[in-house]
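Continuing the series of single-chain predictions for the mutant panel. This is the parent chain; the variants come on the following pages.
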Amino acid sequence: MTPLAVAAAVIVGPDGRILISRRHDHLHQGGLWEFPGGKQEPGEDARQALRRELHEELGIEVLQARPLIRVLHDYDDHRVLLDVWRVEAFSGTPQGREGQPLVWVTPEELGQYDFPAANRPILRAARLPDRYLITPEPGPDLDAFLGQLEAALARGIRLLQLRAKALSPDAYARLAARVVPLARVQGARVLLSGPAELVRELGAAGLHLSSAALRTCQGRPLPEEYWLCASCHDGAELARAVRLGADCVLLSPVQATASHPGVTPLGWSAFQALSDSCPLPVYALGGLGPADLATAWQHGAQGIAAIRGLWEA
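Parent structure:
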């Protein structure tokens, strides 16, 4: 079955709120909320369809947009391919030109609205940043480590995994107890790599599963109000993360890295093929830094994940 190609927009206002609209009751999925957009016409690419639809529906002109996520979804009677873009600059004032109600909501408020099932990956992508910091081993000077972390947060890091394999469980818990409130002050989420119980105890945002932990995990270790991310290297691991109910994944290695010199990198083409097959936001990991963000977006990534590339100024 050839999917219906649809271009949709996560429109972000100057204050960070996101515009959503309510579908008319007589339409398919009527009464539910959605991200503005519509089907591609013959001869249009996704960007062209997006510009036309947003002008027709809302009366705005797109000035700045980038790819966010592509979602293939099967309904009972048809299949849709949602090509979703993040629109960060536009001219004009959005109006429901087709009589549809509009509302601006914060990313955190999106969960209070009912969306079609196909929009669930978009809801995750809309709430996640484009950079995912993996902390390096903290070493013996924890104050220096925390100072570097504060500097990374000041540079705009809003999602991080506290990774400290060399620490004992007790030492890791003590460090996490300092990191979580430090990040919270800056509005950043911390995913722990320790036990799920520690996430609850410290009020962290969620849990990150290594690929080894992913392979042995038999069920989602935390309720859905917590974030769950997993490290993946191939299609089988991506599929397992989806079945487990993960919210996002890291896919690696995209490029060669000094830490894994004997591992053959995926390259961007293979990364995109795997990312397109996964209905989750996918971070590209492996030899990347902020300069690679545009390339990552063009190949279907939510953004980049990195240790050195995001830790060092």
